Amino acid sequence: MTDLTKLTAVEIATGIKSGDFSAVAVTKAHLDRISRIDSKINAFLHVDTEGALSQAKLVDEKRDAGKALGDLAGVPVAVKDIFTQKGVPTTAGSKILEGWIPPYDSTVVSRMKQADMVLLGKVNMDEFAMGSSTENSGYGPTRNPWDLDRIPGGSSGGSSAAVAGFMSSLAVGTDTGGSIRQPAAVTGTVGVKPTYGGVSRYGMIALASSLDQAGPFARTVLDAALLHKVMGGHDHHDSTSISAPVPPIVEAAKSLDLKGMKIGVVKELSGEGYQAGVLSLFQDSVAILKDLGAQIVEVSCPSFEYALAAYYLIQPSECSSNLARFDGMRYGMRVAEGNAGVEEVMSATRAAGFGAEVKRRIMIGTYALSSGYYDAYYGSAQKVRTLIAQDYAKAFQKADVLISPTSPVTAFKIGEKTNDPMAMYLNDICTIPVNLAGIGGMSLPIGLDPADSLPVGLQVMSPVMQDDRMYRVGGALEAALLNHWGAPLLDRAQQL
User: Fold this and answer.
1) Quick one: angle between helices 307-322 and 380-398, nearest 10?
2) pTM (global) more than 0.85
3) Which residues are catalytic?
4) Which of 296, 405, 408, 450 is deepest in the core (most CB within 10 A)?
5) Of residues 353 and 214, which shows the higher confidence score?
6) What count of other Cβ atoms lies within 10 Å of the Cβ of residue 428?
């Protein structure tokens, strides 16, 4: 009997349309797996059993009535708990929003519903998307299905673990400085950060408004492209949404043709601090891309040296502003005693509701924006951001896409870096420049580091609104690697 949880999203959608199995059967299989193994992983914060089965039943009824179904009709998807969903708890991984039930759907959620997808529930995350390990969640850490003692990346660790653990065929995450691509890299999944503005942020709880971007997690590049297509496109509710159609990403993922493409290897994104196995697998992948007909060139982006410092001024500054709304006065947690005044309520609520990392970044951001320091810190960081965008522009004159390792290391052990914020921040050194420039980025698995048998990811970067280029490269490399391995990389993950 076919294990419905091991099928790709394309295989599930095809099987439902042909009548080989029902959407209800697929949904029940995934819900059963969640029930069986998630107590070990802690990917889901809320499982919407009734809602998911109701959505699946509607898909089956629509098929039986002969009505047209979307490309991902009946496919289960897990939603990062930063997206509002009407009637379903949304916490952003924070105790300050515990029990909050949104009265409306985010655009991403509404578009997946319109596409007849089955929303399984909300998944864990670093509180307000601040972190690289999902250890900062107010509801406990999520664990990596490859090794339960290790992190699944962050901040979208619940999304990556749900897909890697075969609890959901697809998942949605958000990427502010690498929070889709880095979790994808350490869990052996595909994760995509679309061009900034390519997917609506309406109904997505903001961390840093000029950096945040929603994107897909999947087990294949084609599955990611199909979910990206469902989520993407202009939205009048979002003033940062690009008024242009989604690039031809599905066709690009199917192309498998790299002849004539120029692929740039970024000089600054390798070397000291990178695991030997990560660099070795990356070089092996570069050789494969060359064999597939691509021309490999080296490019230099010298301003990347300052990306980490600039990011950790810009992001905390914007977070300080965005999180000011969580004050205990309008919604969410309220801590008050006796005749406490407004300032006392706000202070007590934020002290009790926010975790240590959120408080740290709020304080950094507030300081950077304060009178007398704005130009020295936030203003200077924005100038570096401009230099990084200019470096990308120059690099894309020499190459169609750029590549690098996604993360310098494989998944580290839970608790290993919690007392060293700088060591934690360094995990995003390869991914942060993409967000600062607003371009597209993808991570796909390229093998297991022989030193620890854990997944390694390769990052593909493409110019603004040229996301199809990274899908073309990702699809071709994935096909070549799959042919070499003989089976998907995730088949080797720990059996739970």
Assistant:
1) 130
2) yes
3) 80, 155, 179
4) 405
5) 214
6) 26
